[in-house]
Amino acid sequence: MLLTRRELPILIVNLIHIPIFTAVSLKQLNFEFVMYVGVILVVGALILWKQRGVHFDLPILWGLTIWGFLHLSGGNIRVGEGVLYGLELIRIAPAYHILRYDHAIHMFGFGVATLVCHHLLKPYLREGIERWVLLSFMLVLMSSGFGAVNEILEFLAVVLVPETGVGGYTNTLLDLVFNLLGGVAAVAWLAWERRRKVVRRS
User: Fold this and answer.
1) Beta carbons of 190 and 118 less than 8 angstroms apart
2) Per-residue b/e over 6-39, b at no fewer than 16 CB within 10 Å?
3) At residue 129, does pLDDT exceed 60?
4) Do 76 and 33 meet the contact criterion of CB atoms below 8 Å apart?
5) Which residues pair with 79 in a beta bridge?
6) Residue of 81, 80, 99, 83 whose CA lies nearest to 33
7) Number of alpha helices (DSSP H) and beta strands (DSSP E) in the chain
8) What pTM was computed for the model?
9) What's the pLDDT tens digit per position in 25-73?
10) At a CB cut-off of 8 Å and minimum separation 6, what does 21 contact?
11) CB atoms within 10 A of CB 196
């Protein structure tokens, strides 16, 4: 059995929303997001294959699932003349269209990516490690590295697909900034969880 009973609902949610968004992307000739579906399927298959050895916990698995759902929603759900990714949620810096749905998803997604990095590193960490600041810095750098890979994938979409909603240089840099903020938020949450566990033991 590749998955436990508690993990099966996560698989079912993915088996429902991914085919739906694939069909929507194909109907709209949104080949950029057809490509992203392929990436999600590869990552999902890798997690399914390795889960019994890696043991991602439920919050991480749900986080990855929600990230995938929000990402596919952002590129396929129409809002006005554009898509959900272009929707301005809160007007903070009008010149840069901050805060858009796109920024929020980058922050959330790479916060989850930071938790994935922490989980994968845990087997290699000493018990009672004290250099939490250094570890946090490394985790943020790791998730930011994944964010850079994401931007490379977006660049490939620009190269391979005639029309995309990727945006220009400013969009790329804002994506990287919000990836970084997501990583910082995730390590802050990990630090809070760590302190809470120490208080429980004392």
Assistant:
1) yes
2) ebeebbeebeeebeebbebbeeeebbbbebbbee
3) no
4) yes
5) 82
6) 83
7) 6, 4
8) 0.89
9) 999 998 889 999 999 999 999 999 999 889 999 999 999 999 999 999 9
10) 33, 37, 72, 73, 76
11) 9
Token representation of residue 153: 């994938």
- Which is more confidently placed, 14 or 31? 14
**Residues 6 or more apart from 199 whose CB is under 8 A from it?**
none
Closest to 7 (Cα-Cα) out of 61, 77, 49: 61
Mean pLDDT is highest, among 51-55, 160-164, 184-188, 190-194, for 184-188
Pick the residue with more confidence: 138 or 201? 138
Angstrom CA distances, 202 to 125, 128, 146, 196, stand at 22, 14, 37, 10
Backbone φ and ψ for 176, nearest 5 degrees, come out as -65, -35
Q: How far is CA 192 from CA 103, 185, 198, in A?
A: 24, 11, 10
